[in-house]
Amino acid sequence: MPRLHLVDATYELFRAWFAVPSTRAPDGREVGATRGVLGTLQKLVQTEGATHVACATDHVVRSFRNGLYDGYKTEIGVPQDLLSQFHLVEEGIRALGLVVWPMVEFEADDALAAGADRFAGEVEQVLIATPDKDLAQCVRGDHVIMLDRRRNTTMNEEGVRAKFGVPPASIADWLALVGDSADGYPGLPGWGEKSAARVLCVFGSIEAIPERTKDWPADLTRAVRGADRLAATLVERKTEALLYKTLATLRVDVPLTETLDGLEYKGTPPIFREFCASIGASGLVDRVARWT
Fold first, then answer.
1. Which 3 state secondary structure label does DSSP give 20?
2. What parts of the sequence cross the membrane (predicted)?
3. In the β-sheet with 3-8, what is the strand arrangement from edge to edge?
4. Mean per-residue pLDDT, 96-114
């Protein structure tokens, strides 16, 4: 069975934006980040040996989560020269010969979660190529793991427990309590990473945490500093915490139409030449090792 690489192409685009020098296409458009993403994807299939690949993108920044919480992340503050490449990079990835899942209602992270859920039973291993902690909730043993291509490291279920202090099943609860500044929700006052991990390791989920610390194990109450205060905060802000958990929970019901065979990289189609010419990136054409 093959291995499946699921790539967070929005993350790759942001990473390239900060790492790659500004480059203008012949028509004046900024294309540096797009060129950077295509270069790293060529490396993935031609050097790193990926055979089955899907790239998830945020076609737009906003998603259904913005309708649930006003403070959720938006496109505000994202440079226009970067926003203008959201659709361009999708065009380039398709021209390279890879599948793109462009998200509008959902987010790229949801597509990655849905892909892992759908194809895990058909492959030897799923590698979710992103360092985004949200995706840690998708990790399953050594079968579905996270891949940080920049650092060339992987994280399995044991690694998730070591890094966050909780198993993958509790990641959304952990994020809800401690907050996620990248996504725009603050968590609950007083709940830090260690206290949230200690409590969730015992109870598993926000819903299962008893309201009174007298119903907590005595050793947990002693281990968690300010346990009474934290419990009271959770009682007062339970609705808020559950909303944050909804925001943090990735959706696996994203409609994906491809079969596993449809995700196989079979070479780069000739249209890639035209695309590269349009962005002034003839060097990418020279790197192509296999044409369809």
1. coil
2. none
3. 99-103, 52-58, 3-8, 125-129, 144-148, 153-155
4. 98
